Amino acid sequence: MIRVVCAALTDRGRVFAARRAPGRALAGAWEFPGGKVEPGESDQEALARELREELGLEVAVGPCLGASHHQLPSGAPLVLVCYACEAPNAAPTLVDHDAAVWLAPDALPELPWAEADRPLLAPVAAWLKNHPIDAR
């Protein structure tokens, strides 16, 4: 089982979504950013590392919002675990992505999401709707 973590990076009632760049696996698909958990890492350590590498962000990893089980084209099983994250005044730098947006909960279904991320849309939207909007 391949374990992957992703971030519902929130700011002012919106969540960050990024589009995979051409030449990368899943090019053109939108996702919650993150990556593989390496041996010896906790989910939280892996997510903090991945967001530092992919977006240049230091984040506070919060609660788990849900998980999605998926089978890769190779047949390998994958679990994608989503965590709420905060990065105050975030200014992400795109490395593995060619576009990014901050979305309100109701706008999440409008993007062509990666298959593994789709089951996470409802729990992420619920999280955003049930937590106070950051007034920064």
Report on this model:
By secondary structure, this protein is of the alpha+beta class. The protein has one domain: Nucleoside Triphosphate Pyrophosphohydrolase, CATH 3.90.79.10. 17% of the residues lie in helices and 38% in strands. The chain is built from 2 helices and 7 strands; from the N terminus they run E-E-E-E-H-E-E-E-H. Strands 1, 2, 3, 4, 5, 6 and 7 form a 7-stranded mixed sheet that branches. The radius of gyration is 14 Å and the shape is globular. The N and C termini lie far apart (40 Å).
Structural descriptors:
single chain; 136 residues; alpha+beta; Nucleoside Triphosphate Pyrophosphohydrolase; seven-stranded mixed sheet; 2 helices; 17% helix
